[in-house]
UniProtKB/TrEMBL annotation:
The keyword Heme does not apply. This is Methyltransferase. GO terms for molecular function: methyltransferase activity. Residues 47-147 form the Methyltransferase domain. It comes from Microbispora corallina. SUPFAM superfamilies: S-adenosyl-L-methionine-dependent methyltransferases (SSF53335). GO terms for biological process: methylation. Coiled coil: none annotated. Keywords: Methyltransferase, Transferase.
Amino acid sequence: MPTYDVAREWVERWDRQQEGYLPDREERFTALIDAVEAGVGRPDPLVIDLGCGPGSLSARLLDRLPRATVVAVDTDPLLLALGRSAYGRLENLRFADLDLRVPGWSDALGLDRPADAAVSTTALHWLPEPELRRVYGELATVLRPGGLFLNGDHLISGDATPTLARLEVAVHEREERRRFAQGRPEDWRQWWDAVTADPALADLTRARGGRTAAAGHHGSESGHLSTHVNALRDAGFGEIGTLWQRGHDRLLCAVRP
């Protein structure tokens, strides 16, 4: 396990490089947590964070809702170790090393009651549609009636509204240019090249090399809004819609009947 100081340094760099793709990342986090706070009807919700990475969203959620319990799910050993070291002092946060692509992950969560909400940011678009559908199908079995699913991601609408989709991308690109007029932070690949070259993380880098989930990215496999809406509807979710949007960066919400 990395030390707290090492982990915090890398998590802070992670947040900066993510902001290079998401100029409104913190605003989207805020909107998502607003929805959890307003929608679950209790001050101590049980929340599942799907594809949590090093725990950036989970930590922010607990900062706002300290009585919540968050189960943060990922399969990348390096990101999980950074999260455990950086945020291990949060007693209501538990990291779960599970591959969402493997059926049965929902049972392995070990929940003592149905979850009030599930959240995800910039993660599930990596899943091909058949796997995404299985994930949503399992997710519906662990959410309580009225439970929320909140997914913040770049989801394009080009298959349904091509003109609007072009405008959404244009809005996002113009915001990026304004925000990073003085230069962009390091990108995703540069961050990974740097973190895997850190001698303090050599064991975790080797462990990560044995996993296929984090290394198997081949672009945005499920990047269309309609793919997620249709998969959620077929999984049995009821109301489905966008709660917050900036360009094609949006917060999609679905309610379990």
